[in-house]
Design a protein that fits this description.
This protein is an alpha+beta fold. The chain has one domain. The chain is built from six helices and eleven strands. The chain has helices spanning 4-20, 26-77, 103-110, 113-116, 122-130, 175-179, and strands spanning 84-85, 117-119, 135-138, 143-146, 152-155, 169-170, 173-174, 193-199, 247-253, 263-269, 273-275. It starts with a helix and ends with a strand. Keywords: Membrane, Transmembrane, Transmembrane helix. This is Type II secretion system protein G. It comes from Kiritimatiella glycovorans. The chain crosses the membrane at residues 21-44.
Length: 277
């Protein structure tokens, strides 16, 4: 028979055990939540920075792929792909910059559209034709027109960089010096005009057609996924997404007779900056 005193001690031990198995107090929970919040605050910026860095790497890779395609296309077919976009909503002397351009171009290109919008001369059309560029697209849909004297394109006369007032430089040479052939490579021996043509990486390689038929971020024909990456459709002033995905290709065009073929001097992306060809 168990003594009475021992029974009482067993009951007290059981009560203490049950009490020790209880949940966190409110203060303890608040401390845990505070610690978790502090950890999130420490880790989240690093994760965000890593994601942005990875996005930048993807953009650089895609832009390099665009340059590679342009150069390979020129090597294979002896011309650049046709149907690049002029960056305008039309082709005439009153055309405006297309909606949805990056902030720097809204500020500089649209703010100085009279100097940016540029009507091609007969010799400059011949220069682009000699490089295989016979048509340009314009507007938000795939509207295309044959190049002719008086067709307007975007001239790179203003500072289009997002974070600095400096001009673009290709191979260490400013756009202004490219136009006067000052300090440019040996193949460039005369004055010309630097024009910007917007290109989407959906080149049709069949038979060297090269038309840029898809100006959205949809199908990509040479194996680089661009969904959510650059080039991306940018936001219009209303905040709605504009289906216009591109990189910008800069060509030096010559006003010479006989014709001197236009030549690619570089590309750029509104997010990732300049890339030399």
């Amino acid at each position: 028979m168990v003594p009475r005193k021992m029974k009482e001690e067993n009951r007290m031990s059981t009560k203490k055990t049950k009490k020790g198995q209880g949940g966190f107090t409110l203060i303890e929970l608040l401390i845990v939540i505070g610690l978790m919040g502090a950890l999130v605050a420490l880790v989240l910026p690093k994760l965000t920075a890593d994601r942005e860095e990875a996005m930048g790497d993807v953009c650089d890779y895609n832009q390099a792929g665009t340059v590679r395609v342009l150069n390979q296309y020129a090597d294979m077919f002896g011309k650049y792909p046709d149907g690049m976009h002029n960056g305008l909503d039309g082709t005439g002397s009153t055309a405006s910059a297309i909606k949805g351009l990056p902030e720097a171009q809204h500020t500089n290109m649209i703010g100085q559209i009279d100097s940016t919008r540029y009507g091609l001369s007969t010799n400059e059309v011949a220069s682009l034709n000699a490089a295989g560029i016979d048509t340009v697209a314009y507007g938000t849909g795939y509207q295309v027109t044959n190049l002719a004297a008086g067709v307007h394109v975007a001239r790179c006369t203003t500072n289009w960089l997002d974070d600095t007032p400096a001009q673009y430089q290709f191979d260490g040479v400013t756009v202004a010096d490219w136009e006067t052939a000052t300090g440019t490579p040996g193949w460039d021996t005369t004055n010309g005009t630097v024009v910007c043509l917007w290109i989407t990486p959906t080149i049709d390689w069949s038979g060297g057609a090269g038309d840029n038929l898809d100006w959205t971020k949809g199908a990509v024909n040479y194996g680089i996924s661009l969904e959510g990456q650059c080039p991306i459709p940018v936001s219009a002033a209303s905040g709605e997404e504009v289906e216009f995905a591109y990189y910008m290709a800069y060509f030096k065009v010559y006003d010479e007779a006989p014709a001197v073929a236009a030549r690619l001097i570089g590309t750029s992306c509104p997010e990732c900056g300049v890339l030399n060809p």
